[in-house]
Design goal:
Layout (H helix, E strand, L loop, with lengths): L6 E10 L4 E7 L4 E6 L2 E6 L1 E3 L2 E8 L7 E8 L2 E4 L7 E4 L6 E7 L9 H7 L3 H9 L10 E4 L11 H12 L5 H5 L16 H12 L2 H9 L2 E3 L14 H8 L4 H20 L2 H6 L1 H8 L3 H17 L8 E5 L2 E6 L17 H12 L7 E6 L7 H13 L8 H12 L9 H16 L8 E6 L5 E8 L10 E6 L9 H10 L4 H11 L7 E10 L3 E8 L2 E12 L6 H4 L25 E11 L5
Parallel strand pairs: 10-11, 11-12, 14-15, 15-16, 16-18
Antiparallel strand pairs: 1-2, 2-6, 3-4, 3-7, 5-6, 7-8, 7-9, 10-20, 13-14, 17-18, 17-19, 20-21, 21-22
Helix pairs in contact: 2-6, 5-8, 8-11, 10-11, 13-14, 13-17
Length: 604
Amino acid sequence: MTPPPEILVGPMLRYVDSTDATVWVEVSAPCEVTIHAGDEVVTERSWGVHGHHFAVLHLRHLPEGEVTPYQVSLDDRPAWPVEPDRPSVIRTPRADDTVRLAFGSCRRGESQTAVALREIGADALVALAHRMAHTPHDEWPDAMLLLGDQVYADIPSREISERLAERRRAGEGPQSVRDSAGAGGDRDVSDEICDFEEYTWLYHESWRDPDVRWLLSTVPSCMILDDHDLRDDWNSSHSWRREMTAQPWWRDRVIGAFSSYFVYQHLGNLAPDELETNEMYQALRAASSDAERESLLDDFALSADSDRRTVQWSFKRDFGRVRVVMLDVRASRQLDPQDRRVMDAQEWAWARDACLDADAEVDHLVIGSSLPAFMLPALHHIEGWNESVARDRPDKPITARIGERIRLAVDLEHWGAFRNSFDDLVGLLTEVAAGDHRPAPASILLLGGDVHCSYLEEVELTAGRVAGSPTRVHQLVMSPFRNPLQKSIRAVNRLSVRDPVPALTRRLARAVGVRDPEVRWQVTDGVWFNNGVMTLVLRGRRAMVQVDHATVEWPGRGLGKILTLVPALVPESWGRRRQGGDSLNRKPRQVLRRTLSKELTGGA
């Protein structure tokens, strides 16, 4: 007898406005997916690729300004919620003008065992879910902005590594990947994620945790990709790309990465009207077989890698008078050594239009980028120096080859390493703050991740025409959700903000011709290295940021952590799910602790 279908991943609430919402779900078999939300009932037939089955449901008639619980059925059988005492809800925007946006990046999704908690710390998303369980709906985030590295294709967990090894031994998966074993260095990808099936393992591992699953079913999410969605250092330089694209396995890796990103992450970024006009999504729904859909996705993924005009991963969302612009600064890069850009001309033109839109009434412009635009100052200067000396060219001198090795070794590939784009961004911020196209907003808030530390910076635009601007500019960096930085690099980051290091690195950059931009910035708070999450609280023309870091509260006043050094001693009741009425007080608890609350503007 065929078992009834079940929900494998999700439901994930992806988009919400005053009356509409979209919910994404992966199910175990072809079926009719139905959502009941108040008086509205919506049904969608699932569609399949590579043995996996998905649906995106669009609710159109939600009550405005209300909290509506919803349920999911598969072929008329109730499938969600699985915990009746923790229902999933859709919250259409409240009547007041308060917007709360939680954000961060870089999350390792492996198990929440006691040993994992000791090794990589508390999971900020789990801790956020725990906090929300005890706070009023009005204090919940209105959206989660996930700024990259939602999965790590090149650094799989121990459990997934074991599955990969078993799959390779069985002769399954791309032949090119199996053949890479023993090639050495970056050419050997035999222990990495490569095809669509293996990418699904990452998403299942990351998003099936019960607390994270509930969180993402209740808080809308916006996501953007970064390098680990495909591979570390992805598109760092012209020479990196030339070497990697020549590898026999590159084609298979690109197909797996882009096709899975489109299905698992990008579809939910699209507003309902954008879904209706998205050619690839509509082609997938109209295809007559899974094989046809797989062929469509394969061709799409290859084209997305080879021709940047194929797809735009960047997108925008409006939350009342708050505009959020999420930028792809990884896949859209232009790597011409003579004109390096973190976004190509087409993507950048779109970004400018989204930020300068004269028809939008905006109190706060929020720009999300997986990479911080304003790095710790000393590191910014080093990136400028490195870009200058490492330029790829036919007669590449030894200094350029050394510079390229340094770039890859210490990840010198943020906005500061693409100086043309950095200058363009400063010019765009100046236009917005000067009110060239519409009244100047109260704030421009640049959000970043990637760097596995968190900090706040004040940014001062120095062009004369913004001298009287009311706009405050801040860089806010939150990373990681759960992936702590090694101690040696923590020491480098701490050193980089201490005098005279910023001044010395600035001289180094100027010595190779890097000019000073029309902007100054300084770290005001941080640097912190714990797993955590930040939340913007935007109310009228006021902006505040709340910085929370995650910690594990161990049983026995911390002595329980010692037990994890000998896994056999860890009680079975310390599992992630409660058993037999166990008290949570006798388990390791993941909690958020407030590090800082700070006003960013003085607006009323």
